[in-house]
Design brief:
ABC transporter permease, 800 residues, single chain, eight-stranded mixed beta sheet, 3 domains, 26 helices, alpha+beta, globular
Length: 800
């Protein structure tokens, strides 16, 4: 009890040291808690599904005659053939994701649906709150549905008798057979943390009956998940399936000249890797940054600890004189450090837990399964072990600078004034380490921040003010011609409003799932695979696209579905340049002369929000369905309620699926970029603060040890400016070494993260300047304090 009381009192006698160490450790440990939680939860812990280590996504890829990758997506017959024949896989489940209007609900809300085979429920062990899931082969064909717990609450008011009732999507009606449990965590293959509202029977998926017979087409919405047999490897199974399915595909596309020399491959990807996507690299980067931050804090705390021991040398000498053994000194200092470390760890744990809890909406844009990101015992155990090790190292380093025998001799007067002994070499190593780590961390963070800033600035060059996208659904069940007329009438009704400037029957370029179009140059038979998009004659002026050559589509092109194309500048360059590309003919089917389409215009590349590289595009003149782009008079807005009222009055069969401003659509797509930008800048500031604290502590120790030397130089006539210059030259040599080390480390990092060299070089130069200016300021402060003191007081060892 007395020992604990003594430890508490001793910690309270050094408040500045205690506060500095605790705050530094809280910052570092909070970052480490979050980083280790992300790493453990996303990379090492198993997914919450049976035999999750054997779950794989089956991917179907097409390669052209030159063995170049063309597209990754199943054609429907291949998908069903693999599902029905099993092909050595232990279990297979299919899913088709779609957004649909729940027409049986009074508000006709938009709902995320998933058409699945019955194996989906057993493969992911989906728990049920009410009723049952899909459990029988017949559930694939029957019009049955399972609601998510969230949608059951939101749209069905937790109706306890929901099982047996029917719901409708479009013309189809489904009988509800169950409600999933609230704690179920879905493995959505399309988007991080997107939640399915209703699971529907597979055979009712939205692939048209005509398209289900096409061996040459592909549909990105149809996906397959399988369980790998225990005795098989991913590579071996991928090879076997590729050989078998390629043979089947080749047989069924015989006679299609376009596919001469083509082949398909199947590869299996672990489900965990699919769900992580590109966030795996981000997780590794966060962990590396957290470890770097911890190393910097370690140097800082070591310096502060040594400085603190120097102030307590007389107390430690007295304890030795009273018979304290070395182990007793170690134990006392260890428990003092443990008290500070445990307090800092507890605070960091609380802050990290709250950050993960309340930061989930933002983390969901970067990482999958954010609901799994909670502090777990393995994470806490790893951090606690690290803290205990750090505390032990800290005490050992401190006592090694304060020899036990020297303390005993000091009491006898043999070495009067003995204190902490820190060599110049040790101080230089500490400064070099902190500077190099700070430079590498800051340069990486600035690289990330610069890339995100460029992407955000580029995205805002797209003119989206006062522009909206309206997604419609015709529920009359009429034929194709009648539906086309219905969407034309809807566009006319909307354009007649006084607040509307113009309407384009095209889809927004933001967030749209584009597919490649396999086109052949009629004259040279060269193949090109740009991204394709159907647009009307108003699309180009709607987004202020620049015409580089030729002409835009006109209303006649669109009304007649003319075989004319516009292409982007990047595609024109692939075709030999703008002049040569104009009037070039492209075709999906080289054997059909009537299928040839002529390029009539070349437009400037449109900004891409999905990546730094702008892909090549081809545009075809067609009046689209379902989507309307609406440009309003400035100062006005559209809402789903107003749109529903408008169509209820003028066109009752037309339902409003979605109304969204293009600016909000852009903001949603840029959320991850903005989050990375702000996090990078915040961690940069924290890094600079920690570097300043550490360097100030190190240089305080050095200047304290050189106090009398500095006083003697001043006494014999050295000017303050000369002493400052001498200090800066010493710091410059150390800074040069640190910069060289940082260059090597950063080059390794830039290769690992595949960052553009010019971006890295600019970021590194800025990081070096910022770190060195920050460091020079704080290195100068201890000397400035010395120079303010009277020379006589310094020579006597006083404070002046």
């Amino acid at each position: 009890m007395m020992m604990i009381t003594h430890v508490f009192s001793q910690v309270l006698t050094t408040p500045r040291y205690t506060f500095s160490v605790m705050m530094s450790m809280v910052i570092a440990l909070t970052t480490l808690f979050i980083a280790v939680t992300l790493t453990y939860s996303l990379l090492f812990s198993p997914l919450p599904y049976p035999n999750s280590d054997r779950l794989v996504k089956v991917e179907f890829a097409q390669y052209d005659a030159n063995d170049q990758f063309n597209v990754e997506a199943f054609n429907y017959p291949s998908l069903m053939a693999l599902y029905q024949q099993r092909r050595h896989l232990e279990e297979i489940a299919l899913v088709h994701y779609a957004e649909q209007l729940l027409l049986s609900h009074v508000d006709s809300p938009k709902v995320n649906t998933a058409f699945v085979t019955h194996e989906w429920f057993s493969m992911f062990d989906i728990p049920m709150h009410l009723g049952r899931g899909f459990t029988h082969q017949s559930d694939n064909t029957l019009p049955v549905a399972v609601l998510s717990f969230e949608h059951w609450q939101k749209y069905f008011e937790q109706d306890p008798h929901i099982v047996g009732k029917t719901i409708s999507f479009g013309k189809a009606r489904f009988q509800v057979i169950g409600v999933t449990a609230a704690h179920f965590i879905e493995a959505n293959l399309v988007q991080f943390n997107q939640k399915t509202g209703v699971w529907l029977a597979w055979d009712h998926n939205l692939t048209t009956q005509e398209a289900r017979s096409f061996w040459w087409n592909r549909y990105a919405n149809n996906l397959m998940v399988a369980r790998l047999p225990e005795s098989e490897t991913i590579d071996a199974m991928s090879l076997n399936l590729s050989q078998e399915m390629n043979s089947l595909w080749q047989t069924n596309v015989q006679g299609e000249t376009y596919f001469d020399g083509w082949h398909i491959k199947i590869w299996l990807t672990p489900l965990k890797a699919v769900l992580l996507g590109s966030s795996r690299l981000l997780v590794v980067g966060v962990l590396a940054g957290a470890i770097g931050l911890l190393l910097m804090v370690l140097f800082n705390v070591c310096n502060l600890y040594i400085a603190m021991l120097a102030t307590r040398r007389h107390q430690l000498v007295l304890r030795v004189a009273l018979g304290a053994k070395k182990k007793q000194l170690y134990a006392q200092l260890w428990f003092e450090g443990l008290l500070i470390m445990c307090t800092a760890t507890t605070l960091a744990m609380i802050i990290a837990h709250l950050s993960l809890l309340y930061g989930a909406p933002w983390l969901a844009t970067l990482f999958p399964h954010v609901s799994l990101l909670t502090l777990s015992w393995p994470v806490v155990a790893i951090i606690l072990a690290s803290v205990l090790l750090l505390n032990s190292v800290l005490v050992s380093v401190g006592l090694s600078r304060f020899p036990y025998q020297g303390l005993a001799q000091a009491m006898a007067g043999a070495t009067k004034g003995i204190g902490v002994q820190v060599s110049a070499q040790q101080i230089n190593i500490s400064v070099v380490s902190q500077l190099a780590i700070a430079m590498m961390i800051v340069s990486c963070l600035l690289t990330v921040a610069w890339q995100q800033w460029q992407q955000i600035e580029l995205a805002h060059t797209l003119p989206l003010k006062d522009k909206f996208i309206v997604q419609l659904s015709d529920t009359t069940g009429s034929g194709e011609a009648a539906q086309q007329a219905a969407y034309t009438h809807a566009a006319n009704v909307l354009e007649a409003l006084p607040i509307v400037e113009q309407v384009s029957r095209s889809n927004s370029p933001l967030g749209e799932q584009f597919i490649t179009w396999d086109l052949t140059l009629v004259d040279t038979l060269k193949k090109v695979t740009p991204l394709g998009k159907v647009v009307d004659h108003r699309y180009a002026p709607f987004f202020s696209q620049t015409l580089l050559a030729g002409r835009f589509f006109d209303v006649t092109d669109v009304q007649n579905n003319a075989n004319v194309l516009m292409i982007s500048e990047s595609l024109a360059k692939q075709l030999g340049g703008i002049d040569q590309a104009l009037s070039t003919r492209l075709s999906f089917n080289i054997d059909d002369p009537d299928a040839a389409m002529q390029v009539i215009g070349v437009v400037a590349d449109q900004v891409s929000l999905n990546g730094s590289i702008t892909p090549s595009f081809v545009y075809r003149a067609t009046q689209g369905r379902h989507y309307l782009l609406v440009h309003l008079v400035p100062g006005h807005s559209l809402s789903k309620v107003k749109m529903e009222q408008l169509f209820e009055q003028h066109q009752p069969g037309m339902k409003v699926f979605r109304v969204q401003s293009l600016e909000s659509q852009r903001d949603a797509l840029l959320l991850a970029n903005k989050l990375l930008l702000w996090v990078s800048m915040c961690i940069t500031m924290v890094t600079l603060v920690l570097a300043a604290v550490g360097l100030f502590g190190v240089m305080s120790i050095r200047q304290s040890a050189q106090r009398q030397t500095i006083a003697m130089k001043r006494a014999i006539g050295a000017k303050n400016s000369q002493l400052v210059t001498e200090m800066l030259l010493q710091f410059g040599r150390v800074a040069a070494i640190a910069t060289l080390i940082a260059v090597v480390g950063s080059i390794l990092l830039v290769n690992y993260f595949t960052t553009a060299m010019d971006v890295w070089a600019a970021s590194f130069c800025i990081a070096v300047c910022v770190v060195l200016i920050n460091a020079a300021f704080w290195v100068y402060q201890p000397l400035q304090q010395q120079l303010k003191h009277a020379i006589g007081c310094q020579l006597r060892g006083g404070k002046g």
